[in-house]
Structure formats: structure tokens, C-alpha cells
Specification:
Length: 104
């Protein structure tokens, strides 16, 4: 229980630091150290470039706002799917199993 959680967090930190240090000084240059991975292309979905600024209804929306609204839309879709699945036949079965495994 508790010790597994502590060890899992420890290995997660070890992995994060090991990958962060792949900056080319002592091994391959994979992550570029603390500068991060550069030259990742901007996302382009259905002709909409998320890396460019857009003007919608007189408001200028920058690239970070574009990604924010994309993540907001994805979160909304996930919430709707999970709510709908909870009300479906399999969702009611999950609720029954959660409430009482032996009765379900």
C-alpha cells in the first residue's frame, strides 16, 4: 500500500531527472536539458493553425489561448462521454458493482 506508493513516486522522479539530463553533455541530446524539446511543429487540425494568432469577433486570440480552448473542448467532450456512459446499461452495471460486488 503505502510503501508501493512511495517507491512509485521515487521511480517517477528518478525517471524524470534521468530523461531531463539527456542534454548531450553525458549522453545523447534527446530532451535538450532544461530548455526542453525545441522545433515541435504547431498543431494544425482541419485547417486551423493553433500556433497562429486569430481574430474572432474583434478579439485577438493568441497561440496559448488556442491551445487552452482546445484542451477545454477535449475536457468537455470527455465529461460528456463519461456522463453519458454512466447513464447507459454498462454504466448502471458499473454502479451496481461499485455499490455491492456480491449482489451485482
Amino acid at each position: 500500500g503505502d510503501y508501493l506508493a512511495i517507491v512509485t513516486l521515487g521511480f517517477g522522479e528518478i525517471f524524470r531527472i534521468a530523461v531531463l539530463n539527456l542534454d548531450g553533455t553525458s549522453g545523447p541530446d534527446v530532451t535538450n536539458g532544461s530548455n526542453g524539446i525545441s522545433s515541435i511543429p504547431n498543431l494544425n487540425l482541419f485547417g486551423f493553425d493553433f500556433g497562429a494568432t486569430h481574430s474572432i469577433a474583434g478579439f485577438t486570440i493568441g497561440r496559448f489561448a488556442n491551445y487552452f480552448f482546445l484542451m477545454l473542448l477535449v475536457t468537455l467532450i470527455v465529461v460528456v462521454v463519461f456522463r453519458r456512459s454512466a447513464e447507459s446499461r454498462i454504466g448502471r452495471a458499473w454502479v451496481a458493482i461499485r455499490e455491492d460486488e456480491t449482489a451485482a
